[in-house]
Write a structure and sequence with these properties.
The complex is a heterodimer of chains A (473) and B (171).
Chain A: H1 19-44, H2 52-73, H3 81-100, H4 103-113, H5 120-140, H6 151-163, E1 171-174, E2 177-183, E3 186-188, H7 190-215, E4 217-220, E5 223-226, H8 232-248, H9 251-269, H10 272-292, H11 294-304, H12 317-329, H13 353-360, H14 362-386, H15 390-415, H16 432-453, H17 461-471
Antiparallel strand pairs in A: 1-2, 2-3, 4-5
Chain B: H1 3-32, H2 35-52, H3 61-65, E1 78-83, E2 90-92, E3 98-101, E4 108-109, E5 120-124, E6 130-134, E7 142-143, E8 146-147, E9 152-153, E10 160-162, E11 165-170
Parallel strand pairs in B: 3-4
Antiparallel strand pairs in B: 1-2, 1-11, 3-5, 5-6, 6-9, 7-8, 7-10, 10-11
The chains are: A mainly alpha (473), B alpha+beta (171).
Amino acid sequence: MSSTTHTSTIGAIGAPSRRNTELGLLVFAVLIPIFAYANVGLAIDGTMPTGMIGYGLGLGLLAAVGHLVVRKFAPYADPLLLPLATLLNGLGLVLIWRLDQSQRLQQLQKNAFGAFNPAAPNQLMYSAVGIALFVGVLLLLKDHRILQRFTYISMVAAMILLLLPLVPGLGTDVFGAKIWIRIGGFSIQPGEFAKIVIAVFFAGYLMVKRDALALASRRFMGLYLPRGRDLGPILVIWAVSLLILVFENDLGTSLLFFGMFVVMLYVATERTSWIVIGLLMSAVGAVAVASTAGHVQARVDAWLDPFGCYTTSGACEQIGQSIMAFGSGGVLGTGLGQGNSDLIGFAANADFIFATVGEELGLAGVMAFLVIYGLIIERGVRTALAARDPFGKLFAAGLSGAFALQIFVVAGGVMGLIPLTGMTMPWLAAGGSSVIANWALIAILIRISDTARRPAPAAPASPDAEMTQVVRP
Amino acid sequence: MSELTLTVMRLCFLAVLWLFVFVAIQVIRSDLFGTRVTQRGARRGADARPAQGRQQAAPTPPRQQSGGGRQRRGAPSKLVVSEGTLSGTTVALQGQTITLGRAHDSTIVLDDDYASSRHARIYPDQGGQWIVEDLGSTNGTYLDRTRLTTPTPIPLGAPIRIGKTVIELRK
């Protein structure tokens, strides 16, 4: 920091780098999952689990690598993002490992696939890949404004990523949703990565067009209505997200994309009318699709009557069990390892993992998790506020908006607030793509916040000041 | 494992989880209210001012010549808007003239129906004393309760009233 130079601008606030705060929180964030791990082991077997040292060391190592890289390459970054993400990742590992211990789920998987393979070791491996990508992003992306050059390329890339699951032979259909592709032995969910790529496009596009979208409007009933031709982009995004919904049966991704665009439009133009228009359009689209597509129809039925549709379609067993899990958790929960959330069956450790939190940690635990997610979003929005360039502002706001929407869509779906969608709770749910993509997202936010919080270089006025001092004896 | 141990562990875990949340919020809080930092920036600006040589720290010209010219003790370092729509705004005083009015190029753009487009200006005189001058405004500029007719020195903390806006100089 420039405490010795005579900068004459009030803007040159020497923000401390706060890396030691981050380290302290990070140690905390590694110890909590280890405690949880011991708790699960004691509750299930009555002994300390054998894999505890391995998982603890693994998580600690990942956190240490992440911290050192941030310390070296993004020294002024926000101190909270990395510890919060590490805590969620660690607790996700514990919850997945806990569900691996369930005899019921093991038997279910043996019946379905012939063998049981635990998900927790894979998840640890995916976390390592995620941290590797985190490091890679911080090393290679020295300045987030470089991404601005790839505005339209990233649009094409995002469209390709979104359409990949529809390619015959590559895409796979899992329980009705076509959102996976299979390469080699791995299945990837391209939508998770498309989320980040499309944010680049939205940010770059809106930065250029925002004046036209904000100012060329007529006032009507207290709302600024945009011109017809400015409605073009939002119509296109709307159509694309509807197509995703119809052809890939993926309510979550389509909601995420449209919602993210509306959020970024609002941030770019400050016009409430865009939110109203967006809500109206998504309502129209949702009703239209729900009344025609059978897959979505079943989800809506299960949402409206989670306990009654056993008799009609039987598609609501999961959501029914999930709501029961939340209910039996009560305020303080049954304790880690002592719930019956494995009754949910398939996807208990993926889309429905939040029900395990609800049952075993209760309302208190659910609220803590939601606050932790909320803090990540808050730091993202704060980064957007602090960013000095409009692209960085929009990019950070878009990423945190998408993150917030994802949390809302998953948590709301699992709790029965909105129809269930096939999305994953970031870091908690078992699934490689989600963990890896979310680590990349955090890396980008850390990069933007590093640029935003970095103290401004010494003002050009200071050499003048030195000269005046010397010249006047 | 006994029931009691597990219950204690469960409650401990929730407590630790929430403790983490509160520690994180505390970090955010210390990040938000970094006013200490802002003041340091302002004081640094005040230090830089005499060095720029635009304005002398009046009563002791020799000190200025010695190069380490420090500002006169008790001189205001910032201008604070204390009432009106802009209330809370501060501007660091760095020897530059501050113009007030509805014109867009003013230092402080007043969004006030009773202000003229070029309403008043505040500037340091040769001695480093801050002066307020009315620029022929329609509704006048008031220092305390008297309407200004000539450029007048501003005492520390005296309210300058322009329409609905009140500003004052503070240390």
